[in-house]
Amino acid sequence: MIFAAVAAAIFVGDFFLKRYMEKHMGFGKGKPVCGGRVLLRKYHNHGAAFNFLERRPGLVKGLCGGLLLALGVTWAAQLRKKGRPGMLLGLSFLLGGGGSNLYDRLAKGYVVDYFSFQTPFKRLNRIVFNISDFFIFAGSILAAIARK
Fold it and tell me: For 13-69, how does the pLDDT look when each residue is reduced to its tens digit (9 = 90+)?
């Protein structure tokens, strides 16, 4: 079950990165890496992406849990079909990333984000991500492409 291993690796990898950042990085402090192109910094996101619905954490937890459940059912159904590796990989990315972020929401009440890009665009520089966010984005694109 390579696809289950992919989802688990994303979940576990991001779990330990978040744990490290929680223990070793203070708020308001940033550490430039990759030649200053990336800034490591801790941020607690109480809402969905871009703090959407941050004042409604219960709703965010419910929506994310429902979406993750639907993704899990879809993933299990796709396992039975032959010749759908792109779709399964995309869904595995979504499950691993979404599962990690949902775990944070349920266990801590917020998602730990820990890096941002340093670009000429000030608005983009303010956005703080975690690895799960990238797998959710990549999984969405891959599943949409593989759907056809």
Answer: 999 999 999 999 988 778 999 999 999 999 999 988 767 777 888 888 989 999 999
The reply to whether 113 belongs to the active site is yes
Residues of the domain holding 65: 2-24+31-147
Residue-by-residue DSSP string for the chain = -HHHHHHHHHHHHHHHHHHHHHHH--TT--EEETTTTEEEEEEEE-SSGGGTTTT-HHHHHHHHHHHHHHHHHHHHHHHTSSS-HHHHHHHHHHHHHHHHHHHHHHHHSSEEEEEEE--S-HHHHT--B-HHHHHHHHHHHHHHHHH-
pTM of the model: 0.89
Catalytic residue among 89, 133, 136, 142: 133
Q: How many domains, the chain?
A: 1
